[in-house]
Amino acid sequence: MDHGTEAERPGGTTPRDAVFVIACGALAREILALKRLNGWEHLDLACLPAKLHLWPERIPDAVAAAVEEARGRYARIFVAYADCGTGGLLAARCAKLGVEMLEGPHCYSFFEGNDVFAGHADEEMRVFYLTDFLVRQFDAFVWRPMGLDRHPELRDMLFGNYERLIYLAQTEDPWLDAEAERCAARLGLGYERRFTGYGDLAPALGAA
Amino acid sequence: MADDGDDIILSELSDDELVPQMHDDLYDGLRDEVVEGVNILLARGWTPYDVLTKALVEGMRIVGIDFRDGILFVPEVLLAANSMKAGMAILKPLLAETGAPRLGKMVIGTVKGDIHDIGKNLVSMMMEGAGFEVVDLGINNAAESYIEALEREGADILGMSALLTTTMPYMKVVIDTLKDKGLRDDFVILVGGAPLNEEFSRAIGADAYCRDAAVAVETARDFMARKHNQLARA
């Protein structure tokens, strides 16, 4: 785990006063940005590998181990994962552990706002989403795990039912925009950029 | 698996050597070699059913085990499936002629709001390979679409697939609609997809959760055997 370091916290809080956030590695940059923007010095962050998303069934055990490990040191722990393909198992585990987690099915949804995302689920059924993280890590999290580096002929079998790629942008970054458009072209999909900012992530962490 | 197959002349192998070699070729996604193996076995007088079950289905079963164990990943499974499909394309018309055993009929589809069909396609293929007649409704199916097909086809089994946490609850809508119409007990209902689990399957009133294509085949076989036993006792 990539633990935040309490010793460096300038606010003078002790771990007992702090909130320990156990997050998906795909949210590290965004959570640190929110911490900086909001001056949340009481918030310590530890991230689990984003690659767990390739095996969602492993997420509940990994989160539970991190919670148990931190429990003696922190009175308040928050899990910065949504359901993330665990089919309700992560929510059940967090409830059992007595810790809160993010609302919603996945990061596409809470970045856009869970209500807004759910509202257009039917119209955007054929949309493949990327976030800032996924644009940066497209090869590591999409292209290579799907085998497209080795077998480009599989592209239409894997993405043939999609029509558009929508880049849900957390930040204003022309480089990421251009990169996301390139990702869409590589997958043979139309392209759209939609600015979301941090969506529901900010209030959830603020209330943690 | 070995990649030193370049020097192997398939036609020079005995049956006992050729079948495991075909399993290897299927595992490695070597479509042309699998097709060649199918043709060789047929030319040697194998029945299409034996070629299908002993060479292709068994090979794909091994692929399924290694996928389950995290040794193979989606792309490798797709390449293996493409190879099996190519072999099945040769065998299908022959199977129809030779009257291979039919175990039952399944209507299968991905639920409303969901376009993900890789798992569902694998299940379709393995069910066909195991001797089930499969009516594949494709993606984004409403309850009415499933029910209309089940009744039209006189099916035994309904298979529903979903990849998304947001779409999997729709399976309950389908099952509840079947209940409302008094049709629930006419069909075995199998469900599958990455975010599903046995608890969810029980909660929505399905008959079984199938974690992969091989389990789907075994589960369907068990249910059909039970059904036949019940009919025999009646």
TrEMBL record, chain A:
Domain of life: Bacteria
Any Pfam family hit: DUF1638
Domain (DUF1638): residue spans on this chain: 47-203
InterPro entries (UniProt xref): DUF1638 (IPR012437)
Protein name in the entry: DUF1638 domain-containing protein
TrEMBL record, chain B:
Record-annotated B12-binding domain positions: 103-234
Top EC class of this enzyme: transferase
GO BP field: homocysteine metabolic process; methylation; tetrahydrofolate metabolic process
One GO MF term attached to the UniProt entry: metal ion binding
UniProt-listed Enzyme Commission number(s): 2.1.1.13
Keyword annotations from UniProtKB, A to Z: Cobalt, Metal-binding, Methyltransferase, Transferase
Pfam families: B12-binding (PF02310), B12-binding_2 (PF02607)
Gene Ontology CC: cytosol
Superkingdom: Bacteria
Ranges for domain B12-binding N-terminal: 9-103
Family the entry assigns: Belongs to the methylamine corrinoid protein family.
The protein, known as: 5-methyltetrahydrofolate--homocysteine methyltransferase
Protein source organism: Amaricoccus macauensis
